[in-house]
Design goal:
Elements lengths: L5 E5 L4 H12 L3 E8 L6 H13 L3 E6 L23 H4 L11 H16 L3 E3 L15 H11 L4 H4 L6 E3 L7 H10 L24 H12 L13
Parallel strand pairs: 1-2, 1-4, 2-3, 4-5
Helix pairs in contact: 1-7, 7-8
Length: 234
């Protein structure tokens, strides 16, 4: 048994969520990792999430099975929609890209909320970022604030027991470079992570999609090489 408070970490296997896990543990939480097989283009991120969860020694790592391909509407779930590549910084800052998966964070947070209630946990960590991000509406602070308010009206634990849920977003106001710097101070091994929207059959990142560009920029600002393998490296 432990006296540590329990926390659910939404763990994709990417750079941001892995940093979130490291932060949660550094703040004294007993961590439970939640990942999703949601019909995404590739499963390499789940392999990474599994490896990261083991490396950090989480109490339990659960991979929930849902299939958002039933609805489509995103380049991450629909094979007929191409992942945008080599977009300029101006293009990255305009509009909501086709890689946005409709209502994904709402769905993910709802699963996390259900598990948190069962565990009697009052804390959920999510690695959203409002600075270096791809314009997703469910990565905005006002969205998380609204969801947190709703969550505390929706559960038995909150209504009967007064157990209020907090959704932690420790990366919200950090640039990608600052996120990487913080993770490195906490000993994060970023070679275990994958960020790419469209890796090849061997799991090598493309280096050109929005996620890869933001990641590479973050490492460049820190004057260190990204430790993962890119397609151009082979």
């Amino acid at each position: 048994m432990t006296d540590k408070p329990k926390a659910i970490i939404l763990l994709s296997g990417g750079l941001d969520s892995t940093t979130c896990l490291a932060i949660a543990q550094s703040e004294g939480f007993e961590t439970y990792a939640l990942s999703f097989r949601y019909g995404q283009r590739h499963s390499f991120e789940l392999d990474s999430a599994t490896e990261v969860a083991k490396q950090f020694g989480v109490v339990k790592h659960h991979i929930a099975e849902i299939d958002l391909r039933a609805f489509g509407g995103s380049a991450l779930t629909d094979a007929d929609i191409e992942v945008p590549k080599s977009r300029s910084q101006e293009e990255l800052s305009k509009g909501i890209p086709i890689t946005y998966v409709p209502a994904r964070n709402t769905i993910f947070l709802s699963f996390a909320l259900a598990w948190a209630e069962v565990l009697k946990a009052s804390d959920i960590f999510i690695g959203i970022n409002a600075l270096d991000y791809s314009g997703y509406p469910d990565c905005r602070p006002e969205y998380i604030e609204a969801y947190e308010k709703m969550a505390n009206l929706a559960t038995k634990e909150a209504v009967e027991m007064g157990r209020k849920l907090t959704i932690h977003r420790p990366l919200l106001n950090l640039t990608k470079a600052q996120i990487i710097a913080r993770g490195l101070k906490l000993g994060v091994d970023y070679s275990k992570t994958i960020t790419c929207y469209d890796p090849d059959s061997e799991g090598r990142s493309c280096g050109q999609c929005d996620a890869c560009q933001l990641r590479l920029k973050g490492f460049a600002v820190n004057n260190i090489a990204d430790p993962i393998v890119y397609q151009k490296d082979k």
